[in-house]
């Protein structure tokens, strides 16, 4: 590798540009990580942050640049885009069109998509066919992988019609793994074990496991490979699978205070999905940085 992450260089390369992350809370974690990595290179009076509904915007004023995040956990429109009122069993996804979300994506010079976690709630997904605004009509049930494929194809078609590869770049970040069952990395002695109290990465001896659904990863690769506009894949899955020690565990802010019973057994409410900052998402951003500014060195990633 020729050089490490350089915040000043990245800001200079983003001068006059709009960088947009689109996806779920893991993508938002990567977005916030990047802001943390950049903000120290910007004087206090020359930066700002605002969040309105689904869109968050960080401005580097001296560079006339914005780094933004748009909340769309499954990329397509759903009836639970407000996660606070989400009920898993009632989820319905619109297969097409994508206008509700994608109108916010237009004009971005760098697009960074992700979508995986919210597809892992079951084997079946409800899809609304057609353009009718009534979310109760023409609903079909599909296997999660095929529904995921359908939505990714919609994203690719949008990219092909709205992104000029001469002026813009598109990336897709692969699955962020969870560590909710310690048996998956060979710990068969801890009943109900998860990432709680893990203080070191998973070793090579333990590393034959995988918590990520490989069928979903295959769908991602197959669909993105067919895009007529190049989509750079930032593969964070395997390297993150080692990091059972890097989650927020009991330090995530919860909707409600843990009960006495939960506090007596911290494993019962340990967050083994989201990542600490600084932490693993910083590494994701270093990979993105390399792919964005040093694409000729992709072979070392």
TrEMBL record:
Residues 4-289 form the Trichome birefringence-like C-terminal domain. GO terms for molecular function: O-acetyltransferase activity. InterPro entries: TBL, TBL_C. Pfam families: PC-Esterase (PF13839). GO terms for cellular component: Golgi apparatus. It comes from the Eukaryota. Belongs to the PC-esterase family. TBL subfamily. This is Trichome birefringence-like C-terminal domain-containing protein. It comes from Eleusine coracana subsp. coracana. The lineage of its organism: Eukaryota, Viridiplantae, Streptophyta, Embryophyta, Tracheophyta.
